[in-house]
Design goal:
The chain is globular. The chain is of the alpha/beta class and 199 residues long. The protein has a single domain, classed as Rossmann fold (3-Layer(aba) Sandwich), CATH 3.40.50.300. Strands 2-5-1-6-7 form a five-stranded parallel β-sheet. The chain has a two-stranded antiparallel sheet with strand order 3-4. Helix 3 crosses helix 7.
Length: 199
């Protein structure tokens, strides 16, 4: 089954966007599993159906480096627990998604390593797509109407990284992969997801 068929299958299963309603779709998956690519396909699909979409990338809302590096915690803990202000996003993003017409969100600017307040407008009738890693953590999971998990082998995901990034394998071993293992073991995202796509 190619990606186009997988998207068609996905839309047979997610709740229909009715007038005046918002449907919240999560695209979960570990690093380089293809989340951004599949979101682009979904956007193309719903444009043909004249459905409005609002896409949010969870990595836009990470915190400044000083809050997530050299904190005295293990590297994997910093990535999983400190990369985002989990409780703040729960309050300012997830809890307000269904009712609010606009959100005030602290958005990360990589160039200046700072957060700036940004207004995100949410149409009354739309498909809200949130993509990112660790979306099914307990603080956020219940706010989604439908959750997709993109499953992809670690070796294949790592091979999608640039050569320069692959040369920093120790960081992956200590920071990213340990956090991924923790997520897979404690949250069981494959079992929890409404749909698993092998990507």
């Amino acid at each position: 089954m190619d990606l186009e068929d997988k998207i068609t299958n996905l839309f047979r299963r997610i709740p229909k966007v009715e007038q005046g309603q918002k449907v919240i779709l999560g695209i979960d998956g570990l690093s380089r599993s293809g989340k951004t690519t599949i979101v682009r396909y979904i956007e193309q699909h719903i444009q043909k159906k004249n459905i409005l979409a609002c896409v949010l990338h969870i990595d836009d809302y990470i915190v400044e480096r000083a809050k997530r590096y050299n904190t005295g915690n293990e590297d994997w803990h910093e990535y999983y627990n400190l990369q985002w202000d989990v409780e703040l996003l729960k309050e300012k993003l997830f809890r307000k998604l269904r009712e609010a017409n606009e959100l005030q969100l602290l958005t990360y600017d990589n160039t200046s390593d700072s957060q700036k307040l940004q207004t995100v407008k949410i149409p009354d009738t739309c498909l809200i797509i949130i993509e990112g890693v660790f979306l099914q953590r307990k603080e956020w999971r219940d706010y989604f109407d439908f959750m997709v998990f993109l499953n992809c082998a670690r070796e294949e995901r790592f091979n999608r990284e640039s050569i320069d990034t692959q040369n920093k394998i120790e960081k992956f071993q200590k920071r990213y992969w340990k956090a991924e293992d923790y997520y897979m073991e404690t949250v069981s995202p494959i079992e929890q997801a409404d749909l698993v796509i092998q990507n």
